[in-house]
Design a protein that fits this description.
Layout (H helix, E strand, L loop, with lengths): L4 E7 L7 H12 L3 E7 L5 H10 L4 E4 L13 E2 L1 H6 L4 E5 L2 E5 L2 H13 L7 E5 L3 H12 L4 E6 L2 H14 L4 E6 L3 H8 L4 E4 L24 E3 L6 H9 L3 E2 L2 H16 L5 H10 L4
Parallel strand pairs: 1-2, 1-3, 4-6, 7-8, 7-10, 8-9, 10-11, 11-12
Antiparallel strand pairs: 3-5, 5-6
Helix pairs in contact: 1-9, 1-10, 4-5, 4-9, 5-6
């Protein structure tokens, strides 16, 4: 009888995730008998859930919002990148210890290369919103040699904290913080940057307001939206003529890296991508 390996994604909420589609396709493609399940875990139950996965012999798991930072003290060791970023999205049980990794930045880097042929080294990037996904991407970009990072947020306190984190791990990267309310200053900063990253949650619901007036965004500026699905913001940018892509590639590539950490095998990227197409996601 073939043993079925167990993997999971822990989040709250988690039902919307496309990660099971990606990972099941990957396991099937390389001939691994495995199940990747979604686990809705309230924040107060995270320690108990982690212990259960460890006790039951799960081979690995992902963590997503809101657990990427609160999981850190529950782990035994951190990959150097995860330690500098201050968040984890991939856990590997190894030799009786739980190892934490962050593959979000890798996914972000590969997505920019694939869609805009933009390497992180020497790049000038503007982030709209400073949530968890932005944190991982911005710190990773600085570690990979980004020349200039601009953080735009509704409240500057969180952006200033992220700026301090970036400066601590990559002192050579120039960092600017702007409040979202200063439209002229933000629009001017957009004219000096190479790519705009949308990292707020606005767009997840059809009636959400736009995160920024589209008419104030330079028409030639590439936009990477970390939100996976199609949104009104993306549609208006497309109509204006901006090169704009949703966050599917970031999801695919971070999923590829997680798969490689767990299995030691090269990820079957094309099979994972095709599974999203077959399921009507992209």
């Amino acid at each position: 009888m073939v043993k079925t390996d167990q993997y999971a994604l822990l989040g709250w909420p988690v039902g919307h995730s496309a990660s099971p589609i990606l990972q099941q396709a990957a396991f099937q493609s390389v001939g691994i008998s495995a199940v990747y399940e979604l686990m809705a875990v309230p924040p107060e139950n995270l320690p108990e859930a982690i212990q259960r996965l460890k006790n039951e012999g799960y081979k690995g798991w992902n963590v997503t919002v809101p657990h990427k930072e609160t999981v850190l003290p529950l782990l035994d060791a951190l990959d150097p990148i995860a330690k500098k970023i201050g968040s984890v999205n991939t856990v590997l049980p190894k030799q009786g210890m739980l190892w934490g990794y962050s593959t979000d930045g890798y996914g972000f880097e590969k997505a920019l290369e694939r869609n805009f042929h933009l390497p992180l080294a020497g790049s000038r990037i503007l982030f709209l919103g400073t949530g968890g996904a932005t944190r991982a991407a911005a710190v990773y970009a600085a570690l990979r040699g980004a020349a200039e990072i601009t953080l735009v947020n509704r409240t500057t306190r969180r952006a200033e904290a992220l700026a301090a984190c970036i400066h601590h791990v990559a002192a050579d990267c120039q960092i600017h913080v702007l409040p979202l309310s200063e439209l002229d200053a933000v629009a001017d900063a957009m004219r000096q940057t190479q790519v705009l990253i949308h990292g707020t949650s606005l767009g997840l619901h059809p009636d959400d307001p736009l995160p920024f007036p589209v008419s104030r965004i330079p028409q030639e500026l590439p936009v990477f939206d970390m939100i996976y699905g199609k949104t009104r913001f993306q549609q208006q940018l497309h109509e204006q003529g901006n090169p704009v892509v949703p966050g599917w590639d970031m999801l695919i590539y971070q999923g590829c890296r997680s798969f490689e950490i767990w299995t030691g095998l090269s990820a079957p990227e094309q099979a994972m991508r095709q599974a999203l197409v077959d399921n009507g996601k992209i």
